[in-house]
Amino acid sequence: MKISHLALATALIGGSLTPLAWAAKPASEPVGPIQPAKVTNPKLVELGKKLYFDPRLSKSGFISCNSCHNLSMGGTDNLKTSIGHNWQKGPINAPTVLNSSLAVAQFWDGRAKDLKAQAGGPIANPGEMAFTHELAVDVLKSIPQYVAEFKTVFGSETVDIGKVTDAIAAFEETLVTPNSRFDKWLKGDRKALNEKELAGYALFKNSGCVACHNGPAVGGTSFQKMGVVEPYKATSPAEGRSAVTGKDADRFNFKVPTLRNVELTYPYFHDGEAATLEQAVDTMGRLQLGKQFTADENAKIVAFLKTLTGDQPSFRMPILPPSTNATPRPKPFE
Fold first, then answer.
1. CA of 327: how far to CAs of 139, 209, 292, in Å?
2. Which fold has domain 42-173?
3. Assessment of whether the complete model's pTM goes beyond 0.85
4. Does the fold of domain 42-173 match that of domain 2-30+182-308?
5. What's 2-30+182-308's CATH class?
6. Which residue in 29, 46, 128, 172 is the catalytic one?
7. Is 297 a residue of the active site?
8. Of the residues 12, 24, 302, 319, which has the maximum number of CB atoms within 10 A of its CB?
């Protein structure tokens, strides 16, 4: 945070500068606006959209990418932990897929370097979609309309998991949420936020939240320890980044979540233990910053966070091509 930001925020909280006066002053902010998606290959995106919604990529024929990353619910499932094959309880909270293309890596522990690497994981995870890449490809190969679409997109009828994940990733890259009220304020609409929301943003900066929650996604670009000032007692067995690096120093280091659309992506934290935004703000203040927010301060920060909800992805739902007699049948109870 620049000194000018700190001075402005301090003056605002102390009452020497009104939010509306501050709002009129241009500033270089630690958070930038979300940019709309630029689609360069619409046919690849359309194929990816079909695959994202197709439950036949799971052993049960019931679970799709959208099951845990529901695009009608902020790109997540609003559960503490997701439900996998045969009603298995997942080990960790499902992060939102919205704006995930802006993240430094994928999954809470960053084990997938990008969306393509992430897309193949759940398909073959026995606790999630419980299939194999080979069987998923066999399903797609058995459906003539899919084979024809792969040929149109890739120039070959060959279907493989690399092309599947390429397509899903291309669709997920379009799932950005521009035009939030906060973005409009960043772009110069000084009336986009009210005084309470502006005061919340000032608190958000002045308290140090922007050290981790910055950039267009307001997070997602670093790994940080959960429980800096006070230890966090997690209900999840997940150990964070150390599971990837093997380094004890990385224990309980998790990818900082995006705060975009955060009012839609409850519950919060990797174990889903914070049911409300108010609870999440209180916990983060104490554990990460050593600060006990008052009820009024908490309400102002929450008011600001709700201005980060942008335009949700809007598109025509895909009509999936029908299975054939040769398509392997689902096994939902095995």
1. 6, 51, 58
2. Cytochrome Bc1 Complex; Chain D, domain 2 (1.10.760)
3. yes
4. yes
5. mainly alpha
6. 128
7. no
8. 12
